[in-house]
Amino acid sequence: MQIYKVGGAVRDRLLGKPVTDIDWVVVGATAEEMLAKGFRPVGSDFPVFLHPKSGEEYALARTERKSGRGYGGFTFHASPEVTLEEDLIRRDLTINAMAEDDHGVLTDPYHGQQDLENRLLRHVSPAFAEDPLRVLRVARFAARYAGLGFQVAPDTLELMRQLSESGELEALTPERSWKEISRALMEDHPQVFIQVLRDCGALKVLLPEVEALFGVPQPAAHHPEIDSGVHTLSVLEQAALHKQPLSVRWACLLHDLGKGLTPQSEWPQHIAHEHKGLKLIKQVNERFKAPRDCQELALLVGQYHTHGHRALELKPSTLAELLKSFDVYRRPQRFEEFIAACEMDARGRLGLEERAYPQADYLRGAATAARTVAVQPLLEQGFKGPELGEALKRERLKALKAYKEQRLP
């Protein structure tokens, strides 16, 4: 039995990055031997075991063969005869196909170290094209390591293009797709993930609503970058720079989908794109079964982001309706995330990335003013039931009028 550290732990150590998760591969052992040593099996599909003390994953060396469609369409073969090189060749990228023994000796049969030095994301073997999930994984690695200058190797991009055109991407489950998409959006350069998917033809399969934004112009006076797709990438970039949470990044990606529905005869204007985009945002949310907080924020940002930009011009009554739509009295954090998404949208414009966004503080102040209206005095005046709700609404509107006069005399 020989045990090797493999994959990301080896890659990140060589890159000088912190190693978080460690995966191990075991060569020359059987499942029975692993169980006898106290390892606990994980599921029934793969020969993977948890270490009795550390809880880290140890997988028996295995080969795989394509036997069906999609990510799960593989037959695995694990036995003591499978070599380390045979196990490594089934991996996606050369930089993930390196192993290290307990003396730190590197096994690198597919030149992963050289590709690390050359900053290349390159597939290990033609079998790469058998797994559609790898299109998303490579795009995610491109987003993770873009800051270090990594690029997808041209021949790998070509295989990703073939996979995108094969119909295999449609076989991915919503859960697997969302796992990759959500992880990619939380990388340092999520816009690179979308760009790589676009470069290989996968974006029009997975997110045709986002693909449709590219080539759609916007008024240059407000959007010096002009192209709606380029703007979306810039908004995502700003969201990452400002360390926004996943829900905000998801909303940033989907906020302008309605612009893809504007007839060319109306370009570069996009009248009512906020309302038109809601059905598309809902469609994308459902396709990937996004978490509820991501779904709700994306819809609210899609519908109201222009309200956010026009905050200083809004009538107190419109402001009151906006606050009600976000349920700021019970869910203040969601409104805070809306403000963040609006600010990222405003900063995601060519040459305007550093421009101040006074709307953010104004909206926060409005929410605070409305929330300071106390219910108790109204109860003491005898209001109850629907009358109490109406009285509360009047008092909040009064507070917002006073706030607006105070802030904008």
What would the keywords be for this entry?
409 residues; alpha+beta; Beta Polymerase, domain 2; cca-adding enzyme, domain 2; 3 domains; seven-stranded mixed β-sheet; two-stranded antiparallel sheet; 19 helices; 9% strand; elongated
How would you describe what is shown here?
The protein is α+β, with helices and mostly antiparallel strands. The chain has three domains: 1-109, Beta Polymerase, domain 2; 110-367, cca-adding enzyme, domain 2, CATH 1.10.3090; 370-407. It has helices at 8-15, 31-36, 84-88, 112-117, 133-145, 154-165, 174-185, 190-199, 203-206, 208-211, 228-241, 246-254, 273-288, 292-309, 316-325, 332-347, 359-371, 376-380, 385-407; strands at residues 2-6, 23-27, 40-41, 48-50, 57-60, 62-66, 74-78, 99-100, 106-107, 120-121, 151-152. Strand 6 (62-66) and strand 7 form a beta hairpin. Helix 8 packs antiparallel against helix 11, helix 13 (273-288) runs antiparallel to helix 14 and helix 16 (332-347) packs antiparallel against helix 17. The mean pLDDT is 93.
